[in-house]
Specification:
heterodimer, A: 547 residues, FAD/NAD(P)-binding domain, D-Amino Acid Oxidase, Chain A, domain 2, 3 domains, 17 helices, globular, B: 5-stranded parallel beta sheet, binds flavin-adenine dinucleotide
């Protein structure tokens, strides 16, 4: 006998779309179950640039996308102010650029019209000297530069916040749980799915009136499993992640093929990217390749000549769930999205799919999808996701007071307030009878003992590797050499792991960091990974536990 | 300059310098800074066992009998053909190698003793040392501090819980240790966690290094005594994080032990202090033996008309040195003996080829191209270094009067094989002896005999 969970809607996929839809539905009183085969947000959403930009890029061929994105960027700032940070951009213009400053400025003036939608400032034009005063390592070959305003977000935490709010409103969220087979009525209706818990191996069922396929780039796979065809034009993109911030402003760079890329500060690091290439490979083993890395670095070098002297610790890679289009280059494809009802025209009534789109427009997309599902369910409650704050976004945090009260450093308090917003106080209160809540587990981020206990107790973390996205564990220069074992110890206690499981979790985490580092292993990072190996094999001795 | 120069301030370089000085050769030791030696966790691994590495078993796979390092050395020689042990002693040199280690251990113990550190253990009995994570590390030699946490002969382990100490999770350590003890069949050996009744010795300090510095101070000893009051008993180990002083470890231990073993867990940076203590003791031993200690980074080693010349990396940082004999003990990537960058992986001083244990070159290509998928797989990059002949002369062509020592020599992976400081010690001493004979005029240019004299 396997377990059965009945509900109104089963959401398959815990990326930004799945979690956004689950929240929207839960706020409307719909009973929701969400299954995510790995960790929430760990698919494309985590691999994104985390930019809730309006997409200056799309202004020409997709002004609708620009409009949506800007509008919703404003909404995200309202509901999750703690997860959002301003990223001023610097766009250098070179004398050998195809388009001169005058034309560039026309585009920026058009974009200025959208800026008020997202609390952005209008662009400014800087001389070469002014720009180099702001960012001294800019190339001295630039003719002039423009600034424009964008916003960044912690995409992982944004998914978590949506899931937490959905849970607070009655949704059930199951991570490390994969939809493996549809439940079908004799009449051919999709009535949920059989799911498998990949940690325990248990298989059980979610019975749902409606099923929403929100599996991002896995959408075609999940539809196929349901007997339906949904095509995408999957577009792989990579980022290089630098050990620390390379610049204070985001800086545009141009690839050898003319594509725009940028290096931008993102939380404690800088990232550089991104690429966009048709992808036909294994979605579960996406890896950055040598030529992608070289392509990005070459582009960055034009704007920042000494970029290669900065240490790249690892790469991020993902695949965009782009709508299918034939005969266009990757960059020209529409970033629009689609909600498909497989009852209308398809052979699978009860099944819906969401595909395409952007992180920046997730709330609008979720609203649209939830409207469609609610219409089917006969629920006419209004969408409230644009007004109600996400967990943590309720009120601003007095960081200095938090630091004082919890006896933690100001940087630690700042990062805590960033990740958890108004709940930061509750997080540092997640105490243990002996261990000090302020004990530092990871000095790079920093991550405290209490924060790990909190994500285990309140947020439903199930594996050590979940903490990479939840609290940015192991993303500093040492890639977890110093923190992995300590963090595993805390989770072991909270989640009741035995010694064998604990070591296995450490080994898996270490192996995951290795996969992210290996494609760019160079320079000082080679020594850092020598230490990483000595710690894990020499000192801890993971033996045969490494997957 | 006459006399010898050693480049490298890790165990390999320091051992070479001490041997040269004791042989009466005027010697300088040039070091850019601390190397991997300063990051070590408290064991001196000669042939420590390593689960997951089949040629270093801790038990005979058939009989189940415990295998000591002496036996592991023999197994290692027959299986790892490019390991520096094999290169210098030959596949059948097990006994000679063990004997060389016995001499080497005695010398190291002598150097460290005067600086407040003792070297414990032997090749005939495994030390069962708990790590801070609670895993059991089967080792052969260990330094004051961790050596007394050997579980052999111990009847009970009391792990001291000290809240707020970074890298220390007493309950987690206890859980894993109990399970390791059961898995290795060492029981009955109960493990308990006890909260230090008086934790003033650690309060507010955070990192082990800060606590250790406090314990070195005048009040430290008293605070520590108060903390350990009533814990443990005869043959009942009291296990602590690495906090027993930065410099006074032996004295502190002697004073607080009071008839029961008190020991530190093996640990790793930034929570380990053993490497700091070792490095400090070696520096002081070198100074005491008359080694002239220089700080600076060499950029190139040149040889012209039979003369060696060592130039600084930054022009003018120091005056070029022209030694008669040169020992290179610059380590791997952590040490700086190998570099990875725009020119790919390379050996910066002589531009020597860098090879992995299968003899494949990894130099001249970007580091990531030598990487194998899968963290657990043997990684050629991290077992690579320069090649040497049986007399520790860099191959294929290095100028006369140059010897290699330590991790700079390739052919082994110290992290997985756990032979790191063992290689540094053995080859450091051997290279020092050869350089000494060279400088003192005896002939070392003919066919090299197998093994150091
Ligand atoms: C390199 C790159 C940069 C980008 N930059 C930006 C940007 O700056 N701004 C922006 O707005 N957008 C950006 N995007 C686009 C944006 O990231 C995506 O549009 C968005 O994250 C897609 O979210 P999703 O929820 O549809 O997919 P995902 O985040 O991939 O979520 C789908 C989830 O479904 C799960 N899943 C799959 N199969 C199953 C199953 N059988 N059972 C259960 N779960 C399953 C997966 O594990 C995954 O977590 C970028 C994309 C890439 C690749
Ligand atoms: C985190 C970690 C933990 C470890 N723990 C243990 C352990 O517990 N037990 C164990 O046996 N092994 C351990 N090892 C392995 C062990 O540390 C090494 O194998 C050993 O220390 C190597 O010693 P070495 O003297 O050859 O090199 P190093 O100690 O690395 O010394 C190299 C020296 O050369 C100097 N140098 C390099 N280039 C130049 C230059 N151009 N000019 C001047 N100076 C230069 C450096 O500054 C440094 O002083 C560990 C390794 C790591 C990374």
């Amino acid at each position: 006998m396997s377990r059965v969970l009945p509900c109104d809607v089963l959401v398959i996929g815990g990326g930004i779309n799945g979690t956004g839809i689950a929240r929207d539905l839960a706020l409307r009183g719909v009973s929701v179950a969400l299954v995510e085969r790995r960790e929430l947000g760990s698919g494309t959403s985590w691999a994104s640039s985390g930019m809730i930009h309006g997409g200056l890029r799309y202004l020409q061929q997709d002004p609708e996308v620009t409009h949506h994105s800007c509008l919703d960027s404003g909404a995200i700032q309202r509901i999750a102010p703690h997860l959002v940070f301003r990223i001023p951009f610097l766009m250098p213009v070179f004398s050998d650029d195809r388009i001169g400053p005058e034309i560039v400025e026309v585009g920026l003036e058009m974009y200025d019209a959208y800026q008020p939608l997202k609390n952005g400032r209008p662009h400014t034009r800087l001389t070469s000297a002014q720009a180099r005063e702001l960012e001294p390592m800019l190339s001295d070959r630039i003719e002039c530069a423009f600034t424009l305003d964008e916003w960044g977000v912690d995409a992982g935490r944004l998914c978590i916040a949506n899931a937490l709010d959905a849970m607070a409103h009655g949704a059930r969220v199951f991570t490390h749980t994969e939809a493996v087979e549809p439940l079908r009525s004799p009449g051919g209706r999709i009535e949920g799915a059989r799911v498998r818990d990949t940690v325990t191996g248990e298989t059980w069922q979610v019975e749902a009136a409606l099923t929403m396929n929100a599996a991002g780039p896995w959408v075609p796979q999940v539809s196929e499993m349901m007997g339906e065809l949904v095509r995408q034009r999957p577009g792989k993109g990579i980022h290089l992640v630098f050990e620390r911030r390379v610049s204070n402003l985001a800086i545009y760079a141009r690839g050898v093929d003319g594509r725009d890329m940028f290096t931008f500060p993102h939380e404690q690091n800088s990232m550089a990217g991104t690429t966009d290439d048709d992808y036909y490979g294994d979605l579960d083993r996406i890896e950055a390749t040598e030529d992608e890395v070289a392509y990005v670095l070459e582009a960055m070098e034009r704007s920042i000549p000494d970029i290669r002297r900065h240490r790249v610790t690892h790469t991020l890679q993902g695949v965009r769930p782009t709508l299918y289009g034939f005969g266009a280059y990757e960059d020209e494809l529409s970033r629009d999205y689609e909600v498909i009802d497989h009852g209308a025209g398809g052979q699978a009534p009860g099944l819906f799919t969401i595909t395409g789109g952007k992180l920046a427009a997730f709330r609008l997309m979720a609203e649209d999808a939830a409207d469609r599902l609610c219409a089917e369910l006969g629920n006419d409650a209004p969408c409230r996701t644009a007004e109600l704050p996400l967990p943590g976004g309720e009120e601003p945090v007095d960081v200095a007071a938090l630091a004082r009260k919890a006896a933690i450093s100001l940087p630690a308090a700042l990062r805590l307030a960033f990740r958890h917003g108004a709940r930061a106080g509750q997080v540092v209160g997640a105490s243990d009878p002996v261990q000090s809540p302020a004990r530092t587990i990871c000095a790079c981020e920093p991550v405290l003992d209490s924060e790990l206990r909190h994500v285990a107790r309140v947020e439903g973390v199930r594996k050590l590797s979940d903490c990479m996205l939840r609290v940015r564990l192991g993303l500093g220069a040492c890639q977890g050499a110093g923190c992995t074992a300590s963090a595993a110890g805390v989770l072991a206690e909270e989640l009741g792991w035995d010694a064998e499981r604990t070591i296995r979790e450490v080994a898996e985490f270490a192996a995951q960091r290795w996969r992210a580092v290996a494609p760019v292993l160079d320079g000082a990072q080679v020594a850092a990974m020598e230490v990483h190996r000595s710690v894990h094999f020499g000192m801890i001795g993971m033996g045969g536990a490494v997957p | 300059m006459s006399g010898a120069l050693v480049i490298g301030g890790g165990l390999a370089g320091s051992a070479a310098a001490l041997v040269l000085a004791e042989a009466g050769v005027p010697v300088r030791r040039l070091a850019a800074g601390p190397g991997a030696t300063a990051l070590t966790g408290g064991s001196i691994d000669v042939a420590a066992a390593s689960p997951g590495v089949p040629h270093l078993p801790w038990r005979d796979p058939r009989s189940g009998e415990a295998l000591p390092s002496r036996a592991r050395l023999r197994i290692l020689l027959s299986g790892a053909s490019r390991h520096p042990y094999t290169t210098t002693f030959g596949a059948a040199g097990g006994e000679a190698l063990a004997a060389a280690f016995e001499r080497a251990t005695e010398r190291l113990a002598g150097w460290l003793r005067a600086e407040g550190i003792d070297l414990h253990g032997s090749l005939d009995r495994n030390l069962l040392l708990p790590s801070a994570q609670g895993t059991l590390r089967i080792s052969d030699l260990a330094l004051t501090g961790v050596a007394s946490s050997d579980l052999g002969g111990c009847r009970k382990v009391t792990i001291v819980d000290v809240p707020g100490v970074e890298g220390w999770d007493a309950r987690g350590c206890a859980r894993t240790l109990a399970s390791e003890i059961a898995a290795l069949g060492l029981g009955p050996l109960p493990v308990e966690v006890v909260r230090a009744r008086d934790d003033r010795f650690a309060s507010g300090a955070g990192s082990p290094a800060r606590i250790a510095a406090r314990l070195d101070g005048a009040e430290g000893e008293g605070l520590l005594k108060a903390a350990l009051e009533g814990l443990g008993g005869a043959d009942e180990l009291v296990l602590l994080p690495q906090v027993l002083g930065l410099v006074r470890t032996r004295a502190l231990l002697a004073s607080v032990s009071q008839g029961r073993p008190v020991g530190e867990a093996l640990s790793f940076p930034p929570f380990a202090l053993a490497g700091y203590r070792l490095t400090r003791a070696l520096d002081r031993a070198c100074a005491a033996a008359g080694v002239e200690l220089l700080r600076g980074r060499a950029g190139r080693v040149l040889a012209a008309e039979g003369r060696l010349r060592v130039e600084p990396e930054q022009p003018g940082a120091f005056e070029a040195l022209e030694p008669e004999g040169l020992v290179l003990a610059t380590g791997r990537f952590v040490g700086g003996g190998l570099e990875a960058g725009p020119r790919g992986v390379h050996e910066p001083l002589l531009g020597l080829p860098v090879s992995d244990p299968d003899g494949r070159r990894v130099d001249g290509i970007p580091a990531h191209r030598s990487v194998r998928k899968g963290y657990a797989n043997p990684q050629p990059l991290y077992a690579a270094g320069v090649s040497v002949d049986g007399a520790l002369r860099p191959q294929p062509t290095a100028p006369a009067g140059v010897w290699a020592a330590g991790e700079w020599i390739g052919g082994f992976d110290p992290a997985r094989e756990r032979t790191g400081l063992g290689v540094a010690l053995l080859t450091g001493i051997a290279a020092g002896e050869r350089a000494a004979r060279h400088v003192l005029g005896s002939n070392d240019s003919g066919q090299a005999p197998r093994g150091p004299a």
